[in-house]
Here is the input.
Amino acid sequence: MKLQDKHLSTLLIALAVLVAAALVILDLPLDQGRSSLSYQGESIGSYYPASPSQGFALLLAEPEGSERYRLKPIIRLAQEADLPVLTLNLEEVDLAFAMEALSNTAGVEEEDILLAAYGRASQTLLEEAAYLEGGEAGAGLALFAPLTSPEAFEPGEITLPTLILGTTSDDVAPPEQLAQLYNSLSGDEILATGFGIKADQQDISLRIVSGVFHAHNTYSREITTAFSQWLWDTYAIQIPEVSPGSTVRPLLWAGLYLFWGLAMVFLYRQLSHSALEVSYSLLSVKGAPSGRYITRKSLYWQLALPLAAVIFGVLWLLPLELPLLSIAFLSWLAANAGLSCYLYRSGKMPGVSTLARPPLAPLGGKRVGLSLLLTAVTFLWGVVLARSGFMGWDASLPHWIAFAIALPICGLASGLFTYESLVMEEFKISLPVRIGLQLVQFLPLAAAGAFCVPINYWSGVLICVIGLATLWAVLLLCRVVQYLSGSLVTSGLCGGLLLAAFFTLAAV
Here is the structure.
């Protein structure tokens, strides 16, 4: 790798850290206004105070897992409209008790409380609202990408003004399911076909727009516009800005460009003997490694899997409140670093005998600094991805099928296009052996793509496979660009830009 490439890599890593940190810091003003609400000695949830100048308050039912972070755009919308907000888990708190607590705290009547939910929490909210006074509890219901059982409800069971809001690109709550829920509540009979679906019947409103919920602290403008318009038409509640967090969106995509650009550099070299290996082991072998060294090293890396599982369990049990995705990234880094350091210190570095140990690159301040930057960007982007709702964790059957398809795609890509595979190819090591040895290094990538992406429906499996196939094609393109340009970083950034463009288009 050229010297200027090393400097450019360090600069890009630093920029990615700054962007990720900025995205996390931008959460702080909203979190600083939050307080824990207790009523009659019982903890209710998180309260965001505001002056109820328009006479309404908002109660948000939180889903479990990373999906709850997708409520932040709704909280921002409500605060811009001067609506006090209470977020809570309806599995733990009774709805009537929570409404009483919010009414006394915010100074509004219970019939002026808007009820809202996202995803899996919608089923519980609908059941609770239908139970309270024949469906006349609160001022209205807003359901964002609701995951419900439509057959559980009948027309007239919910008499409150209700908004069912979803998107044409959402696999979590597809338009067909939203239309079924609308038909069950309203008694209407519509089919969810085409774009821009809008239906109203007996105070039940259905809006399916072209947008995406999967964005850090902001929704697509079509989503916020539909929600704001419903508030105005139904309650004359005016929201000054219909796209909260719009300044965050450019930062997010700029950060993703940097992140994917760096990721392609790391994946293409597989953190091998070059300077980029410091993110794993702080060790770097001088000179060209032998095929035996590369082969044994790839084999020994598989020992890092159980070690990573142990570290993951320890970090998960500690009261750190870290996203599972960040814990997984840190565990993988720590396991590989610990294993590499142990093997070297004990004289058991794979493929290297005690008498013929190659010299190590000096462990200077620059290498330590680069390692810390790489660890920081990994951790911060894990936090960003988990808190934004981009990535959660779901081990349902479609995800296992996606993983079974994704793993060989990643293995074939690693066996053909990474640096270590090229070294093994020069030493006439067969392709099946190369794929088998390299496969374990792509396990985190395949697992992230298959289990962390929301693909609750079968079409998501195809999306996951297309994304990984795109990665495979980009790796091949990176190899071609490197031959033409002679620069690894240039090829990695080209691949990163293409990947970021692909995922951006897929998101919007």
Observations:
- The radius of gyration is 26 Å.
